[in-house]
Design goal:
The protein has 2 domains: 3-224, Rhopdopsin 7-helix transmembrane proteins; 239-421, Histidine kinase-like ATPase, C-terminal domain (Heat Shock Protein 90). 64% of the residues lie in helices and 11% in strands. The chain has helices at residues 3-29, 35-59, 66-100, 108-130, 146-168, 175-197, 203-238, 241-257, 259-278, 288-306, 327-338, 380-397, and strands at residues 134-136, 142-144, 286-287, 310-316, 322-323, 347-356, 359-366, 400-405, 411-417. A hairpin with a 5-residue loop joins strand 1 (134-136) and strand 2. The chain is elongated.
Length: 435
């Protein structure tokens, strides 16, 4: 092979490896991957195969053996088919990104690109018998024919459509997304023109690969910020405003009746607020004892409010493990708000931890009014808090989360954590994090 061919093969092999690694990273570190993310993963794998087949085309170029004859034809066929598939996937990705940001939701322009690419693929397939798109000379070297220029025009037109949509909807995209889109669209458009005049190096494929990696970086950066925002919103949402209002009302009444008790209540309430705010710094996991300190402040205020109507029993056998911030507090609040508060007469809340068969069991139980577990989605406040906690238990600790409830007979929530949730004193980095 020529030195330029060796360089091309090396660059494409490197690009394929990087694309596969990027796709695997998204799969491993993302749960509940949305459609846009799945499209990007598919595009990364598709581009990796495209680059591998293009490398094979360079390796077997000029090889007149039987193997060389088949490999050049198979590899070139796959390169062109995968190019159209790749561009279709990226058009879909751009559409979904714009739609998710509240921009243009008209799918017809994507369908138009699909149709154009289907026509291009049909030309490639027909070329296997007619040579209309490309052919091979007697030395098994590939050369272009008229169909290639038609295909390049189709690709250029699809880039132009994507460019129009990206520019039109630029205001709904983040800066990183906007710049990565422009790079993906205009860089390959430029190299498509270059490819008209220079033969021997796949400028288009290299340009698409570099642009795709820029899109991947923009996607990951957005997910990092989105995850941080989600964590903050979940924590803010779980610190229910009604608790703050009720606590202030309780303190106001105590000021007139029992000033010393009012001061004590203020201390607990301020400690609760200070602890809640401290947990909004992005930590995925905190020591269980830290979480229980917050729960104790919360229960103190609720006890001041409900008096003898609320009984609390705790049996804490295990404490050396971690939990997501405000996870236990949310379940305790749900037990009081949606269970015991609706009960006629006094109610009891139980909080227990124990180790069974090498697993940590956390149980939050109440003898309140209970609810129909199948209809939990219709109870917005309860559903949101429970689902946020369930998601964080499953994604950060790979634990299990179950709810047993019966109308009139209370509710039992059980969290089971694997042993890797246990931490050694002073060593808080042993728990693996998964974003």
């Amino acid at each position: 092979m020529r030195s330029v061919d060796v360089a091309q093969v090396c660059m494409e092999a490197w690009g394929a490896l990087v694309c596969v690694m990027c796709a695997i990273i998204i799969i491993l570190y993302r749960t509940n991957i949305e459609k846009r993310g799945r499209t990007l993963i598919t595009a990364l794998f598709t581009n990796a195969f495209l680059l591998l087949f293009d490398s094979l085309a360079y390796i077997y170029r000029g090889n007149v053996s039987t193997l060389g004859w088949y490999m050049t034809r198979i590899s070139n066929l796959m390169v062109f088919v995968l190019e159209y598939a790749m561009l279709s996937l990226m058009a879909t990705y751009i559409y979904r990104m714009i739609k998710n940001r509240g921009g243009d939701s008209d799918f017809r322009w994507v369908k138009a690109i699909y149709i154009g690419h289907a026509f291009g693929v049909s030309l490639v397939l027909i070329s296997q018998f007619t040579g209309i798109y490309y052919a091979f000379d007697a030395t098994n070297h590939y050369y272009r024919n008229t169909g290639w220029y038609v295909g390049a025009g189709i690709m250029y037109l699809s880039f132009a459509i994507c460019a129009y949509k990206a520019v039109k909807n630029r205001r709904v995209l983040t800066t990183g997304e906007r710049h990565s889109m422009y790079l993906y669209i205009f860089f390959p458009m430029f190299t498509t023109v270059v490819q008209f005049f220079i033969y021997g190096i796949s400028f288009i494929n290299l340009a698409i690969t570099l642009s795709l990696l820029a899109i991947y970086v923009a996607y990951v950066v957005h997910q990092i910020y989105a995850h941080a925002d989600l964590q903050r919103n979940m924590l803010l949402g779980q610190m229910q405003p009604h608790f703050v209002y009720n606590s202030l009302a309780t303190i106001r009444s105590l000021i007139m009746e029992d000033p010393e008790l009012a001061v004590e209540s203020i201390d607990h309430f301020s400690s609760y607020l200070r602890g809640s705010v401290r947990l909004m710094d992005g930590q995925q996991l905190i020591p269980f004892e830290t979480e229980m300190e917050l729960v104790d402040h919360y229960l103190y205020m609720e006890k001041r409010r409900f008096g003898e109507k609320l009984h609390i029993e705790k049996s804490i056998s295990v404490v050396d493990f971690q939990v997501p911030p405000l996870s236990i507090q949310t379940l305790v609040e749900n037990a009081i708000r949606h269970g015991i508060r609706g009960r006629i007469g006094p109610g009891t809340l139980w909080i227990r931890t124990e180790e069974v068969d090498g697993r940590i069991h956390i149980i939050i139980e109440d003898d309140g009014v209970g609810f129909d577990v199948k209809k939990i989605k219709n109870q917005d406040g309860l559903h949101i808090g429970v689902e946020n906690t369930r998601r964080r238990i499953e994604t950060t600790l790979h634990g299990t989360f179950s709810i047993k409830s019966e109308i009139g007979n209370g509710t039992l929530v059980e969290i089971i954590l694997p042993m890797h949730a246990v931490t050694k004193r002073g060593d808080m980095d042993e728990v693996p994090h998964r974003g």
